[in-house]
Structures
1.
Amino acid sequence: MRRGVLGRGVGLSQRVVVVGGGFGGLQAVRKLRPAAVDVTLVDRQNFHLFQPLAYQVATGALSPAEIAVPLRWVLRRQANVRVVLAEVTGFDLERRQIVLDRLPNGRRGVTLDYDTLVVSGGSQYSYFGHDDWRPHAPELKSLDGAVDIRNRILSAFEAAEVEPDDDLRQSWLTFVVVGGGPTGVEMAGQIAELARDSLRGDFRAIDTGAARVLLVETADRVLTGFPPSLSHKAERALEKLGVTPLVGHTVVDVGADSVSIRSGSGEVEEVGARTVIWAAGVAASPLAADLAAAAGAEVDRAGRMQVREDLTVPGHPEIFAIGDMVQVARSDGTIVALPGLAPVAMQEGRYVGRAIRNRLRGDTTPPFRYVDKGNLATIGRSKAVADVKGIRVSGFPAWVTWLVVHLFYLIGFQNRLLVVTRWTFSFVTRGRGARLISESAAD
Ligand SMILES: Cc1cc2nc3c(=O)[nH]c(=O)nc-3n(C[C@H](O)[C@H](O)[C@H](O)COP(=O)(O)OP(=O)(O)OC[C@H]3O[C@@H](n4cnc5c(N)ncnc54)[C@H](O)[C@@H]3O)c2cc1C
């Protein structure tokens, strides 16, 4: 193992290290643009991923490069920032250092000093203690994961086309999505559209429209973050697309060629299915547990560490932790239940950037307060639900709102242009331009 110390960035006296160039970390870095600080952004991947559109890569509607943008490019005009490609594997709070592994030059165990640290490591899917299901039920959290799912979905149709046995063919044409949150609903809707619209006519031996898409959700409705009326509208819209929402059902086993599903009455049915997509429980990045252990802070059942209402780690005002990996505790001890959403992480990132700037001026910053601007989920072509400050909308108006909001938050003018062009083309032709089976995430 080769160890070392990573030197200063641009040479200013205050060193701010930001871990994670996702929604939270990137906003913190950008907010520090006018500050006289030396910022180092460390991420294990060289791009910012727009996760809300990952399901469109997984279903061949968009290409990976259209939802990911290189961090260096995003920050090219921000002179006080350097980007370091490395994995953070440890925190030494006494020495005010983080430990970096897997640097591109092969070094490991390299330390990086900070005066202020911001950690925004995000989250990952949790298989509720069944990690053996992971190989059979991939998740959408990363770009590689989205490409893997795309390969599996498209390969399943190819396998069905050449499969002479009826039962086996049906198992290739059965798709099970686990988890009825926004990602599960989007995935199920898109697979149904792929089968019924985009692929129809492309195959000779099979009718892709006969594909079964099951959406399994333990709760008694999908989209539990929305009011029940919108959940029920979403279920009806899914059914119209050809999805079977199995609410009140739980997946109890996942194998290479079947899924066992328990109904509300306790009966377990084994369904032959070759493609299973995991969109269920979420757990915080392991960085939360590492940082909490180093600081003596608490973590909850989902692995999120508790931070104070100014988003600092208890006992360490020089360390901020934000985004999916934290939960905020008010000064009276109550926990603020913030959802694992991009706007939460972005607002927290901007707050931290502002707080650091205020500190440099000797000013204090009032506690963080999340401003909830509403909730959106899309189901398919012209179908979405929106709950914006109590105004509940579904169908085409909600879908247009969804499109506009996602385009607005997508980073990079080029990506916005490419995505809008793709969407327009797909809307008119019902086609999907990125239907490649490929091992490379660049395709
Ligand atoms: C499939 C999917 C769909 C979603 N759809 C929506 C949606 O429609 N609307 C919405 O509001 N939210 C959506 N979300 C949630 C949203 O993406 C998250 O809430 C948001 O990304 C959280 O931001 P973050 O900064 O905490 O983490 P992230 O954005 O995940 O960023 C974490 C960053 O940290 C880096 N990192 C992690 N560990 C290390 C390490 N050890 N060393 C170095 N770098 C590390 C990662 O590479 C990553 O760049 C979706 C999430 C998923 C997975």
Note: The CA atoms of residues 129 and 281 lie 11 Å apart.
2.
Amino acid sequence: MPPAVHRPLRAPPPTAPDPQGLRVLRDLLDLVLVRACGGCALPGPTPCAGCAALLRAAPMGAVRPDPCPPGLPRVTAFGRYDGPLRGLLLAHKEQGRTALAAPLGGALAAAVADLLRHGPAGPAGPAGPVVLVPVPSAPAAVRARGHDHAWRLATSAAAALPAGTRAVRLLVPARRIADQAGLSHAARAANLDGALAARGAVAGQVVVVDDVMTTGATLVEATRALRAAGSTVVGAAVVAATARSRPKGPDTARSRAKGGVRPVRGPDSGA
Ligand SMILES: [Zn+2]
């Protein structure tokens, strides 16, 4: 009989690194292997030169979902959730291409700057340092992905904005919510009501940030929770808005160039 081999009973299998190790491994693979661009599938780095240039373009500006949920503050988006931008966001969020956090965070920073330039904050609005608060993902989703994509984008965006801007993890899930997919606008709003809680309040101009806005219901809930705890929310900024959102405000050459439709006129709701 061969001698017994002593090994820890609960040693982790060598092929299952922890999420942090997995992230480092993915970053190394990005460096070593020739992979396709997550935005346009061109062989080479992510982002490729074309997609990197896209992320440095001027932001689309103010957007409003249609229908617009009550309580939505002013929202600005960098661009539309389609084409290369959609691919880049998915590669960052779902494929762990964490090197995309810096250029995508730069795009989010441009949307935040646009919000602060044209939003209700303005020269006569609330003062103080700008605080970016990301919409939190469910803990199980963060574990499954191996990284917190919204937090990564928020910290990258804060680093790209003027000194004094910071990201704060102020929101936490207050309860489990049902899968939003397939729910109507009203059902989404009901599903999300009370779903988030703020761990306190911060001084300054709070901007809710997220990667994508679909119906706006999540941004409404994030804004509600932050205001209930005493923070001053001046608006929200996202990297991309889905096609159901329309550019809002003056029909500028910039919004037409981005495929904008006719201007939407109407009061800000809840801002
Ligand atoms: Zn590309």
Note: The chain has one domain: 19-257.
